[in-house]
Each structure stands twice: as structure tokens, then as C-alpha cells.
Amino acid sequence: IPVISIVGRPNVGKSTLFNRLIGKRRAITDPTPGVTRDLIPERWYLGNHPVTLVDSGGVKVEREGFDDLVANKSLSLLSQSDAILFMMECTAVTAEDEELLTALRPYSEKVLLVVNKVDGPKRDDLVWEYYQYGFQRVVGISATHGLGIEDLEDTLLGMLNMVSLDEAPEETERVKLAIMGKPNTGKSTLTNLLVGSDVSIVSEIAGTTRDVVMGTFSYKGSDFTVLDTAGIRRKSKVEEDVEYYSVNRAIKTIDEADVVLLMVDAIEGLSDQDKKIANLIVRRGKGIILVLNKIDLLTGIGNELQAIKDRIRFLFPILGFAPITSISALKGQDIGKLLDTVWGVWRQLNKRVDTSQLNEAIKEWGEAYQPPRGSMGHYKVYYGTQFSANPVKFLMFVNRIKDFPPIYIQYLKNCIRRDLGFTQIPIEVDLRERRR
Ligand code: GDP
């Protein structure tokens, strides 16, 4: 049975978390805060897996008034644990925290850094700062309010290989598709084809809650949901135009989606508005596929389709990574190819790169091309971690953020794309300055 220990300085919230996880108050043998409390293992169920949960008591490492017995127990607990929940507070980092950080360094592979007391406004942002300590996994919670506990459990399940987070998305997971584009590009036609019913006749009833889902369908064993998007439901032209040209509406749709199909009339090409929408999609880290529709109307003379694609690539380099597919929604042509592309993009969106693999790669990229010198000496990239999937975001810890050369960030992005398998999606790379 795996052993999970909770470690942290006194008053950081260990007991509160412990009680929350096991779902009851357990007896504490000695009320003196921190030091002399005994280690009390409890049976806990993580998912459906039985585990042993241990509160380390107040671990104190090499400090005055330090209780040898507790300390020794605590240290041997660390080596015996399969996972260590190391608790810190989002509001303060103390010398005791720093000492524990050092003591935990040898076990960093099995540490989940739990940032507690993330319950006030704006505190979410503080969690980011804790990536600087170099642990692969960080989760923000509020033990008192029960926030973030599910994330904590999911992460633990992954760490203990009880459910592998690296595998394909679970069967129950749905790929959320938004179909966007100018009026008359064929959005309704494609939606009807995919969900197999005439959705365009469904009209909104004023004053009722908006139904955001147009329909669902399966393809090769995966489930897809088509979100309601401006212009799919029949409306007056004016209304539709207003919706497509409203940034707020577009952002709302994009935020709900995993992958956006940007429908473009193959003959007309990309409009300025398409480019703006595409920019929003990229900035929010969503998957985007350019769908050239109505290819049945192309003459087939020369390599017309390729010329259209080249033109888009040339005029819109920011979408260099986005797949371009061509279909005829009306004739049902190449829809399978489109859905295969959607699936590929979805896989990349949900891909997670191991921190050790990433850091190997960062070393190699740095050897191939060193960060440039600034007025205060060379810039350095110490290490990095994948902060999130879907949207895919990386954090890089550097010696100096000020004037960090954008060209080097671009270089890192290109390397991540090329070497780590994120060729078809937008990725974000954020910098953090490492302390000391
Ligand atoms: P929406 O405004 O983007 O939802 O566009 P619609 O789906 O209503 O399509 C606009 C018009 O284009 C309709 O007359 C469709 O029949 C037509 N259309 C849609 N897809 C295709 C296609 O692949 N080929 C051709 N030739 N016409 C299409």
C-alpha cells in the first residue's frame, strides 16, 4: 500500500488538509503545536485505491530546540514515502520553509508542492511563483475551504501511476469543437453533417438559458461536441454579422472550445476578420484548424488548392503551425481527414512532457544556441517545466527577466515544437526569474 506523507512547517495547514482528506477529525496525541506530535498513519482512499496517509507532525530540520526523535522519524518517513505532499503557504515563505526545501531536494521526484491558503481574491496568481522551487508538480489549494482538492488528488493518482496522465484522454472526455467563420462559409452545413440533424432550425427562445451545445457525434471511438457558435443557428443576416464581428462573443466561444475550426470559403480566402479571430484563438492557446470549404467549386485546373494554401501561409505566418484542411461540407468530401486532423491537434493539446525530458532538451538547445549577452552578462535558462496542457504552457526559469531577448524565447518555442511534439498547436512560454 503506497504511503503518502504530508510535510511542512508548523501552522502551514497540514492537519487541516489531513482531516479534509480522511474526512474526519482524528485525535492528536499531544496538542503542543508541531514538534512533539506523533506520526499518525491513517487509511485513506485515493480514487478507489487504498493508501496510507501520514502527517509528519511539525518537521523541524537542524534548528534550535529541535526534537531529534521527531526529526529522525520525519526524515525516515521521507525516504519511505511514495509521495510527499510538501505544504507551503501562498502568502509567506519563511526560513523554515527554505530549510525544508533543502531537506526535500533529494526526494524531489516524489514531491507534490501543495500551496495552501489559495482562497482570497487574486491568490491564484501567487501559485505560479512556486514553480521557481523546481518541483515538477505544484498545486494550489485551500485546505480550510476545500478548494483544489480534486486537482491534488488527480495529480497524486498520476504520480503513483494509478491512472497515467500521459495516456490518451479518457474515453468519457469529449473534444469540444467550435466552428467559426464568416457568414456563408458553410458552418451550418458542416454542423448538420457532423451531428446528423438539422440544427439550423433550432431557434433560441428569448429569455431562456442559452443552449451552448449544438450536438454531439462519435468518430473512431472518440466523442465530439459541437458548440453553438455565432451564425450556426439561423438568424437574420444582420444579427449574424453582428455576432461574428463581436469580439466578446468570439472570445466566449473560443474559451469554451478545445479546437476551433475556422471555416474559410476556399475561393474567397482569409478575411481580415478571420485573421483577428485566429489571433484570439492562438493567444488563448486553443487548437485551430483552417478549413477550406467548398472545394467542389474549384475548377481543378493546375494546383489551385495548393496555391490557395500557399497564399494563406505566406500572408499569415502567425498560423504557420495550424493545419489547413480542405473539404466540401455540401458533398461530405474529406470529412474523415478533417476529423483525423482534429484528433491529432487534440492529442497535442493534451500532451504532457516530463520535466526531466524537458530539461535534458533545454540543455541541448542551449548548447546548440546560447542565449545572447545583455548589458549585465549572459542570459541563462536554468530549467523549465510544463505548466499546463490544453492550453499548453511552459515556464522557463531564467537568471534575469529584464530585457530577456524575445528572439531566444522564439527559439525555445520552435525547439519545443520541433523536438517535443507540439507541431500543430499554439504554445506559450513564460519566464520566471529564479531567486538567488
Ligand atoms: P454558414 O452561414 O457559415 O452557416 O453557411 P451555410 O452552411 O448556411 O452555407 C452557406 C451556403 O453555402 C449554403 O447555400 C450552402 O449550401 C453552401 N455550401 C456550404 N458548404 C458548401 C460546399 O462545400 N460546397 C458548395 N458548393 N456549397 C456549400
From TrEMBL:
GTPase that plays an essential role in the late steps of ribosome biogenesis. Belongs to the TRAFAC class TrmE-Era-EngA-EngB-Septin-like GTPase superfamily. EngA (Der) GTPase family. It comes from Sphaerochaeta halotolerans. This is GTPase Der. Associates with the 50S ribosomal subunit. One of its GO terms (biological process) is ribosome biogenesis. Keywords: GTP-binding, Nucleotide-binding, Repeat, Ribosome biogenesis. The keyword Nucleotide-binding applies. GTP 2 binds at residues 181-188, 228-232, 293-296. Residues 175-350 form the EngA-type G domain. GO terms for molecular function: GTP binding; ribosome binding. GTP 1 binds at residues 8-15, 55-59, 116-119.
